[in-house]
């Protein structure tokens, strides 16, 4: 649900600030955003907050799904520790390679709009096996590998998502931008 909500929020953000998301044919706004006393009066800022909340909830949903399947797959502590070592190496390497080699070319080629969809779409595709086969009792043990893929891809696509989210702050006035970033990165993200 939260992943689908992230997709809806990205669509709403694209409609509110099409220039920021690189929508073809979009014209820049005639005037800059005026600072307001309350951040919650600006619908664009509210959508950014909502996107961060949904992203955080989606992250924890995928994380809990993976951990549940991980403990079902590895009942022995030694095998679990061995797997977690390999898993950490795979996650670290995929995040590094994605950030170093993929993020800039991806955003240059496809733009911020597609970049904003990258993480929610990736997670939605990875969660499909759970929706399709999760209710079939005999296939539940096989859901470990889709959970593993969802978790690794979550980290691999994260550099693209972070760069895109940083660009989403640009339409906000400089005075409010610092406050919005402080709230999203310092309060909403660690939830």
Structure description:
The protein is built from five helices and no strands. It is 75% helix and 0% strand. The two termini are 18 Å apart. It is mainly α and 191 residues long. About 3% of the residues have low confidence. α1 runs antiparallel to α2, α1 packs across α3 and α2 packs across α3.
Give a quick set of tags describing it.
191 residues, mainly alpha, 5 helices, 75% helix, 0% strand
Secondary structure elements and pairings:
Blueprint: H1 2-16, H2 43-73, H3 77-133, H4 144-168, H5 174-188
Assign an overall shape.
elongated
Helicity range: over 70%
Largest sheet: none
How far do the termini sit from each other?
18 Å
Structural class: mainly alpha
Helical segment count: 5
Query: In percent terms, what proportion of residues is strand?
Result: under 5%
What's the rounded overall pLDDT mean?
81
Low-pLDDT stretches are: 30-34
- Give the strand tally: 0
Order of helices and strands: HHHHH
Radius of gyration: 19 Å
């Amino acid at each position: 649900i939260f992943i689908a909500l992230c997709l809806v929020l990205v669509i709403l953000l694209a409609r509110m600030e099409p220039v920021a998301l690189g929508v073809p044919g979009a014209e820049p706004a005639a005037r800059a955003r005026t600072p307001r006393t309350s951040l919650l009066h600006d619908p664009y800022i509210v959508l950014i907050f909502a996107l961060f909340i949904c992203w955080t909830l989606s992250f924890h949903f995928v994380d809990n799904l993976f951990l549940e399947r991980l403990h079902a797959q590895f009942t022995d502590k030694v095998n679990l520790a061995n797997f977690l070592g390999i898993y950490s190496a795979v996650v670290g390497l995929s995040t590094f390679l994605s950030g170093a080699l993929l993020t800039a070319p991806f955003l240059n080629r496809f733009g911020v709009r597609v970049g904003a969809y990258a993480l929610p779409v990736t997670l939605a595709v990875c969660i499909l096996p759970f929706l399709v086969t999760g209710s079939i009792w005999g296939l539940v043990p096989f859901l470990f590998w889709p959970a593993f893929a969802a978790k690794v891809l979550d980290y691999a696509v994260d550099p693209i998502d972070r760069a895109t989210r940083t660009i989403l702050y640009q339409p906000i006035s400089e005075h409010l931008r610092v406050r919005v970033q402080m709230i999203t990165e310092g309060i909403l993200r660690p939830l």
